[in-house]
Specification:
Blueprint: E1 4-5, E2 8-14, E3 18-27, E4 30-43, E5 47-48, E6 51-52, H1 55-73, H2 77-80, E7 82-87, E8 93-102, E9 109-110, H3 113-125, E10 133-145, E11 148-150, E12 157-158, E13 160-171, H4 172-184, E14 188-194, H5 195-203, H6 206-211, E15 213-218, E16 223-229, E17 232-239, H7 243-254, H8 258-267, H9 273-278, H10 283-305, E18 318-321, H11 330-338, E19 342-344, H12 362-376, H13 391-421, H14 429-441, H15 450-464
Parallel strand pairs: 2-7, 7-14, 15-18, 18-19
Antiparallel strand pairs: 1-2, 2-3, 3-4, 5-6, 8-13, 9-12, 10-11, 10-13, 15-16, 16-17
Helix pairs in contact: 1-4, 5-12, 7-8, 7-10, 10-11
């Protein structure tokens, strides 16, 4: 399973401010629980707004976090080297598509894994990704069996299976850079998870997911938003504004270096203001800079992103996490802007070691939750392909497949136009059906679906005779 070595779960969270490696172990008696046994922390270098801008510097941060985790746990580097990586992407494409398959003709049949794979493929066929985008997560948001909404279709009987699939895609170059960075640091990438999703999993309780909620995580360089309904993420967004912008604002208005501004940002709400004033710090001006930036983030960017969301759709409200969420009064500001209840996260869902038991480390805990959830249900967060080895080859193959789908859609449009001009374009309905079947199967179906192809052809011959 991803990131698992003899009961170990190992995650790597690559953020703008810090790079964290988290190590936990599973208890066979309680498969849904984990016990954190160690971690490694390093300041992030070579990452700006969540994106790698210097491969060498980012690699050094990964290596330092890895070395510290190994030192704290005493576990051999080999056993710690298989990791799931959480990373950010500024350009996130989150699209919903629908797929449908028939199961047993006149007689109903139980849904098998092959049926789930078929209906997922149908939903993917309807997806139009932008050029050079990688399908990082494919999330089934809802199923229907014979028109009835169901939670889990496997082994249930019916005639028709529908799926609504949420695909979360990021630029391929981001993925390649992350994988190259981690690999060259001596680690094995066993899986990837987008940081907004990891942060949400580390902050939200399952009952909140089922009822419907919005996760907002304000990190160092980005703000991640994930919408949940019926226990599943159905939309993911990323805003390129975070705590680093607050630090820059403080540095600008007070005319101090970035390092001092970062230190002051942390002290402003934990130190007596009069003590800061005695040091010559303009506390009021620094506070105004923070409030103005947070109001801009929530009042403009977040509110616009959630313009179509109403409290009725999200009974559990907003769950706010990330390092910036420690700002006093920030939850009241967000409640006033969104007109929704806000719960500010004080600690991750799993018990963390001292120093990590705060809202800034929800993504590290979320990687562990991602481990558990994907092991229990491999259909919850699916990747379009296993990344390694051969990422570049799969990328090229995926691009060819997407190009073929685009060409097929273009031919369909041309044929529809021709039909409008000539109602006798097809000599008869059988010829039209044959043409469409040939178009659908032309280099589209994987070789392992030959049995399915034969069943479809047999069904067609029965109709003819």
């Amino acid at each position: 399973m991803p990131g698992k070595s003899e009961g170990l779960l190992v995650g790597l969270s690559m953020g703008t401010t810090k790079t964290t490696m988290i190590v936990a172990e599973r208890n066979p008696r309680y498969p849904d629980s984990v016990h954190v046994i160690g971690f490694g922390n390093a300041p992030s270098r070579g990452i700006s707004k969540g994106i790698i801008v210097s491969l060498q510097d980012a690699r050094q941060s990964v290596m330092k976090a890895f070395q510290e985790a190994q030192s704290i746990t005493g576990i051999s580097p080999k056993r710690l080297s298989s990791v799931i990586v959480a990373f950010n992407a500024m350009d996130v494409q989150s699209e919903s598509t629908h797929g449908m398959v028939t199961l047993g003709g006149r007689d109903s049949k139980a849904v098998e894994k092959s049926d789930l794979n078929r209906v997922i493929d149908r939903a993917r066929d309807n997806l139009a990704l932008r050029s050079n985008m990688y399908s990082l997560h494919m999330i089934p948001t809802s199923y229907e069996l014979d028109g009835r909404a169901i939670d889990e279709p496997l082994n249930m009987n019916g005639n028709q299976l529908d799926i609504w699939l949420q695909t979360v895609a990021v630029p391929m170059t981001y993925v390649q850079n992350v994988v190259n960075c981690v690999q060259t640091a001596g680690l094995d990438v066993r899986g990837l998870v987008l940081k907004p999703i990891a942060s949400s999993l580390g902050a939200i309780y399952e009952e909140e997911m089922r009822a419907g909620c919005i996760s907002i995580c304000v990190g160092g360089g980005t703000t991640g938003i994930v919408l949940y309904r019926s226990g599943r993420a159905f939309r993911v967004m990323s805003i390129p504004i975070g705590g680093d912008h607050i630090r820059s604002d403080i540095a600008t208005v007070l005319h101090i270096p970035f390092g001092e501004a970062e230190h002051l940002k942390k002290r402003l709400f934990t130190t007596d203001p009069e003590a800061l004033r005695r040091e010559g710090i303009d506390v009021d001006l620094a506070t105004q800079a923070i409030v103005a930036r947070v109001e801009e983030l929530f009042g403009e960017y977040v509110r616009n992103a959630l313009a179509e969301c109403t409290p009725q759709h999200f009974p559990s409200g907003v769950i706010l996490s990330g390092g910036v969420s420690d700002t006093p009064g920030i939850e009241m500001m967000l409640e006033d802007i969104l007109q929704m209840p806000v719960r500010k996260v004080t600690e991750p869902i799993y018990k963390m070691p001292p120093g990590l038991d705060n809202a800034a480390y929800v993504s590290a805990a979320g990687i562990l939750k991602f481990h558990v959830m994907t092991e229990n249900d491999p259909y919850l967060f699916m990747e379009s392909d296993q990344l390694l080895p051969g990422l570049s080859e799969r990328s090229e193959k995926r691009e060819r497949q997407e190009q073929k789908r685009a060409e097929r859609r273009e031919r369909e449009r041309d044929r529809n136009d021709d039909e409008d001009e000539d109602s006798n374009y097809y000599r008869n309905e059988d010829e039209q059906e044959e043409y469409e079947e040939d178009e659908y199967y032309e280099e589209e179906q994987p070789r392992e679906n030959i049995g399915e192809l034969m069943r479809r052809l047999t069904s067609r011959f029965k109709k003819l005779f």
